[in-house]
Design a protein that fits this description.
The structure holds two protein chains of two kinds.
Chain A lengths: L9 E6 L6 E6 L2 E7 H5 L9 H11 L8 E4 L3 H14 L7 H11 L4 H9 L6 E3 L2 H10 L6 E7 L6 E10 L5 E10 L4 H11 L8 H8 L7 H7 E3 L5 E3 L16 H7 L14 H32 L3 E5 L6 H10 L4 E3 L8 H14 L19 H10 L3 E4 L2 H13 L4 E4 L13 E5 L4 H12 L8 E5 L3 H4 L6 H6 L5 E2 L17 E2 L2 E3 L5 H14 L4 E5 L11 H10 L4 E4 L2 E4 L9 H4 L2
Parallel strand pairs in A: 1-4, 4-5, 6-11, 11-12, 14-21, 16-19
Antiparallel strand pairs in A: 1-2, 2-3, 6-7, 7-8, 9-10, 13-22, 14-15, 15-20, 16-20, 17-18, 21-22
Helix pairs in contact in A: 3-4, 6-13, 7-11, 8-11, 9-11, 11-12, 15-19
Chain B lengths: L7 H5 L1 H9 L1 H28 L3 H31 L4 H4 L21 H25 L4 H28 L4 H39 L2 H13 L5 E2 L13
Helix pairs in contact in B: 3-4, 4-7, 6-7, 6-8
Classes of the chains: A alpha/beta, B mainly alpha.
Amino acid sequence: MLRGVCTDMKILGISAHYHDSAAALVVDGLPVCAVQEERLSRHKNDAGFPLGAIEWCMEHAGLEPADLDAVVFYERSMRKFDRILTSALRSFPHSWRSFPEAIKNSLGEKVWARGIIASYLGVPRSRILFTGHHHAHAAAAFLTAPTERAAILTVDGVGEWSTLTVGHGERRRGGAANLRLLREIRYPHSLGLLYSAFTAYLGFNVNEDEYKVMGLAAFGRPTLADKVRRLIRRTPDGAFRLDMDYFEYQTTAARSYSQRFVELFGRPRNPYEPIDVETDEGRRFADCAASIQLVLEDTLVDIARALQQETGLSDLCLAGGVALNGLANARILTESGFTRVFVPSAPGDAGCALGAALYADRVYLKNPDREIPDHPFWGPPVDGMELARAAREDEQLVEELDDTGLIERVADALHAGRIVGWMEGAAEFGPRALGHRSILAAPHAAEMRDRLNREIKHREPFRPFAPVVPLEAADRYFDLPPNGARLGRFMSGVFPVRPQWRSRLAATTHVDGSARLQTLERGMAPRLYALLEAYGRRSGMPVLLNTSFNVAGEPIVNRALEGYSTFRRAGIDLLVAGPTVVTKRARVPAGPLSEAAA
Amino acid sequence: MATAQATRIDEILRPVHRWVWGDFDRRVRKLIAFSKVEGDGGRDILRAAELTPDPLLRRLYLEHAIDELRHADLFRHRGAALLQVRATNTTSLFNTNPLPGGHGLDDLTIKGEPDYRLLAFLHVAEKAAAGRFEIYRDVVEDDPATRAIFEEILRDEVFHMNYTYTQLARIRPEGYRWQVWQARASRLWKRYLRLAVVTASAMSAVMLTLMYFVVLAPFAVLAKRAARREPTGWTPMAPERGDAPGSLY
């Protein structure tokens, strides 16, 4: 039997089987660690059971599975199966192609979550708990945010049946936490799936490239918004419904939009054709992106505004994959009536691992609420010595410096136009690099953006890079609304760059004059903050370009050696991990390599 | 130094390969599939570079991974260039290809594998790929750009084939030939397993499709009727059942 209301409870949260598998460990009401499986398995968007993540969490905390008081899975898998089966029945006979695969997927593994957890971890089945998918999202947003009362809005593709929920939460430090979801919009009517249908139509990968649609939107005009609104109708009660004649995701896994959708918007983009926004076809795709973006934002703002009026609360906690849309988040902040908007560092399914563990701790087990440290660094640490050893073996130039020397050395390099791989402390939990696994560069010239794209990121030219700026200096360079900096804490909002600075922030200013900035508080990442100050003393602007430390198609680096292998094959000039600085040599002596095959 | 040589089976299948590559759609599909396979393989070897304790192997794996990732780019760009010339049937193009191409599809496990096993595996896989790529180079003689890609890749594959063997002999001086035989046997076994999975999957798909039409039809009528009665818009949510946190439903 589960024990309740006791200290030192150890609860493991798990999300798995769809995308972004992750594990998180909560001890005595506080997160101890959390990591996505992809960071350890090195398979991007790893959806498998997160055994590597669980093992790392347990090892990090010095625990054995037998020590766990509860293991919490982030959704109710039989309820999800109910949705899958019911959807197949409702779309009979059109669902005949997808039915065998859906059933095999579900019955092959996914519905047996309890058995899988019990067999992998060897914990008693009575200690395995489940939360609703959107309850886990809600908990990830509300129970980690620095607020005591807030409205809650969760929006994603689909959980069990819910695709969007609204509710509210109340908590008191040392007292009870209460989280209640009031209403839902149910599958197949889904804002997330609507956006994903356009993601697929525009030739991008669903569940991965939605942010490319957002980036492309800035190049277009929402000339097709009225057509998009034919797909999504508002209902009299303020919700929405999709016209399912335009979609196929309920009948097949092969395509999310229907032929009628194609008749309305024209030929879909071939994923292997580059987008050239100077051509008519490229502009059509950009207009399409701008139109779906506008409709998404309008719908979310309306729903958030109604929620604010209903609850009268000033804070909103926002979660679900759609909460990664920084443009929509910024409009919610400025137009919905909420004073503050909180988006966690991992608003997607990975964050549900932490949300599920916290939900079980506060709601099921009724443990007293505790304030969660307001940072995203719950992942594995980096070892500078490991980097130094490997780099020396490869005859690279290695220095080990104290903090002051290192900051000055790196600031000099950045000021000289070098690109720096920056690894520090524990890895971020969530999809954004927030200063512990980042590639840093000078943000001033558009050429730097092109160089990063060409030599490291291999991204589409229409995608912008993000700036990082000290919290205190953010207002000077960016036109932030009140409390906009809070959204910038985890790079969750897109805001205008002040016109006078756009030419000097060319590498991080998008075509529409906006930037998805990170506002950095000194206490969150002191070394990066010091680096920004040192760079500011040289350039006159304490702003750096900050992009995730990975190359296209790979997860963000985790260990020092992963950073090192990325450094060796990409155009990164300097690599920093802890006290170690490695400078790339023009050419490592061929030495034994030429003889290695002889 | 060993050179690329097609296996006897591939030589026998040369007309089949010529037929496969002779069709425009199939050629594009193959190139795109190879791009994915080489990319996956490159990332696997990159992982090996990150995990090996041997400094020389780290550098070799890294060079190898860079080659594979470059091959992925070459295939991808060529596939995209062909698509620019002529549109193709996108639905079939982007379906995953169940056929084996390179080591990316061979379920290679890197973590926990000793270097000698990995080297033996890579040697066998590279040798097979080099032999096959030699045939592909010959059968695309009408397409100089694609042929040039195979020629470039072949040079790399020969280096990969040789360094893996030399290094295997270095780190496993006794029994390295046995390791190569084991890798060959393992490759065959994995092919059998893949075939078994594909067969089982096809059989289950047939059975489930039959069940879909025979058993589900009456339930579908009920489900559709229930769907029509469902209100649109907001649906109130019952409180999450704090008394049943162990329920899957």
